[in-house]
Amino acid sequence: MNIFRFAGDMTHLASVLVLLLKIHTIKSCAGISLKTQELYALVFATRYLDLFTDYISLYNTLMKLIFLGSSFSIVWYIRYHKIVRRSYDKDQDTFRHYFLVLPCLLLALLINEKFTFREVMWTFSLYLEAVAILPQLVLLQRTRNIDNLTGQYVFLLGAYRALYILNWIYRYFTEPHYVHWITWISGLVQTLLYADFFYYYFQSWKNNVKLELPA
Amino acid sequence: LEQPHMHDEL
């Protein structure tokens, strides 16, 4: 495992921890899109079907369990926790799941490396992960007041994706036959979705003002 | 020869 891959995983882990910190300690999920969180839970549930059939490493298994466990518990908190759910911006978080889920499922059925159940599910999870952040970005734009933890959460998620691209470039040059077009293109699309957010994030950081996305 | 499809990334 190279440094970019490891740093990417750690950034991903940090983003989840920041979100859990906000929900668990401050008992607030203001500005967090439940739609995005539900899509991530679906992403991990469909991607990690190999958890009990293929063993890669202890690190791999542990991380998979962490991402599965954290994504489902975040959804649980926002939906059912009696204090946390009060801060959920339900009226603003109106993105429709199936606008993203159905096209991704169709695309995975059409474009995949192998037409087996697990491989199609894996591919579906890649496509869905690429667009799962959209409800969250829409919500950020509607929320005039983006708190620090929410901004950091989205920033860390974007950084994780950018580091994965560096990881693929590194692996391409160091490993024989390392070519994964589906993973790369969906990963690139996913990272590009953060470009706008990154721009405003760095602007607010440079000028030391509160993060706000233009309508 | 077909490459084994290793899902070693997260």
TrEMBL record, chain A:
Single GO BP term: protein transport
GO molecular function: ER retention sequence binding
Pfam families in the record: ER_lumen_recept (PF00810)
Keywords: Endoplasmic reticulum, ER-Golgi transport, Membrane, Protein transport, Receptor, Signal, Transmembrane, Transmembrane helix, Transport
Signal peptide: 1-31
GO cellular component: endoplasmic reticulum membrane
Domain of life: Eukaryota
Membrane topology: Multi-pass membrane protein
Metal-binding is among the record's keywords: no
InterPro entries associated with the record: ER_ret_rcpt
Membrane-spanning ranges: 55-78, 98-115, 121-140, 152-170, 182-202
Coiled-coil parts of chain: none
Cell compartment(s), UniProt: Endoplasmic reticulum membrane
UniProt family annotation: Belongs to the ERD2 family.
Protein known as: ER lumen protein-retaining receptor
Source organism of this protein record: Sesamum indicum (Oriental sesame)
Encoding gene, per UniProt annotation: LOC105171890
